[in-house]
Design a protein that fits this description.
Keywords: DNA-binding, Transcription, Transcription regulation
CATH class of the largest domain: Alpha Beta
Number of domains: 3
Number of strands: 12
Organism: Paenibacillus polymyxa (Bacillus polymyxa)
CATH architecture of the largest domain: 3-Layer(aba) Sandwich
Number of helices: 13
CATH superfamily of the largest domain: Response regulator
Radius of gyration: 24 Å
CATH topology of the largest domain: Rossmann fold
Protein name: LacI family transcriptional regulator
Pfam family, one: Peripla_BP_3
InterPro entries: HTH_LacI, LacI/GalR-like_sensor, Lambda_DNA-bd_dom_sf, Peripla_BP_I
Distance between the termini: 76 Å
Length: 335
């Protein structure tokens, strides 16, 4: 005979409603009671019927993950699998599932988010990026759908729970690190002009140079997209940079290849520092000095904040900053 929720309640000496709340991981139930009920569930071999729970409570136990609009390139960026690993860690602990939302354009992405919402497939969303004038964030906010953002939102910032690094300060710290190595001519390469993370890092770089009284010629900043000739032009500036900050590790890998084609050796002729500290940073030749932004924690904290909001709509808005640190490797050296 199948074990029922009543059997668990009887053995744990609690009400069936308490067992139900434990299954939902309700914050209204103490950790001690949760532990006791779960112990009896395991002893009896009881497996909760999450589908039935969802129908009864009109929840899906599923959250949507909104990727940036793209066709192929986004899936080749290790930032997203690592952030998904952090998200998965929390949702698996709390018996949620994930649904990935993708689209080649922002309109297609918005259409799919609306369809997923209309058909009741998820309880809320994590937006894996932040950019200016985002129609998806506008839609989620207008419809009062629970969501969190990884990054610094530009709309409804005081009302939007988000998890981010202090990218502005991180870029300033990189400039300080390089000036500590006696570099004064520092270039910045990469980053589009749409996503907030890129704008914040560029702003931090520019402000740090100004505050240090160091030169900031316009030719020292090269934005995406760029090519080999753009890199050649940068290196032919008068005077040429002795160090380079790159917007992220993937871009740094492309830049390193261009530098090799131009006969520039790292770090003897040019020091380089990047952001994100992906695994490939260690595999580059020379290994890349990079800012570790703890991508796993960005995902983990975003999932935690969203599920807390889903369970308690009165949960206060949170602005969570995940610390960063510079991981020094052989791509940078004292001038």
């Amino acid at each position: 005979m199948a074990v029922t929720i009543k059997d668990v309640a009887k053995r744990a000496k609690v009400a069936t409603s308490t067992v139900s709340r434990v299954i939902q991981d309700s914050p209204k139930i103490s950790e001690a009671t949760k532990a006791r009920v779960r112990k009896e569930m395991k002893a009896l071999g009881y497996e909760p019927n999450y589908s039935a729970q969802s129908l009864a409570n009109r929840v899906t136990q599923s959250i949507g993950i909104i990727m940036p609009e793209s066709d192929v390139a986004i899936f080749q960026n290790p930032f997203f699998p690592e952030s998904l690993r952090g998200i998965s860690e929390w949702v698996n602990e709390h018996n949620y599932t994930l649904s990935i939302v993708t689209g080649k354009t922002s309109d297609e992405l918005l259409s799919r988010v609306k369809l997923m919402t209309r058909t009741g497939r998820v309880d809320g969303y994590i937006v894996l990026y932040s950019k200016q004038k985002d129609s998806i964030v506008e839609y989620l906010h207008k419809e009062k759908i629970p969501y969190t953002v990884i990054g610094k939102p530009q709309q409804f910032i005081s009302e939007t729970t988000h998890v981010d690094n202090d990218n502005y300060q991180a870029a300033k710290d990189v400039v300080t690190y390089l000036t500590g190595l006696n570099h004064e001519r520092i270039a910045y390469v990469g980053g589009d002009q749409e996503h907030i993370v890129n704008l914040e890092r560029l702003r931090g770089y520019q402000d740090a140079l100004r505050e240090a009284g160091l030169p900031l010629p316009k030719e020292y900043v090269v934005r995406e997209p760029f090519n080999l000739e753009d890199m050649r032009t940068l290196l032919q500036a008068s005077p040429p940079p002795t160090a380079m900050i790159v917007s992220d590790d993937l871009v740094a890998m492309a830049v390193q290849k261009m530098l090799a084609q131009l006969g520039v050796s790292m770090p003897e002729q040019l020091s380089m520092v990047s952001f994100n500290n992906l695994m490939l940073a260690e595999l580059m030749n020379p290994p890349l000095t990079s800012v570790d932004i703890d991508i796993f924690s960005l995902g983990y904290q975003a999932a935690k904040s969203l599920i807390e909001k889903i369970k308690d709509p009165k949960e206060l808005t949170k602005h969570i900053i995940v610390p960063h640190r510079i991981v020094e490797r052989k791509s940078s050296q004292t001038l």
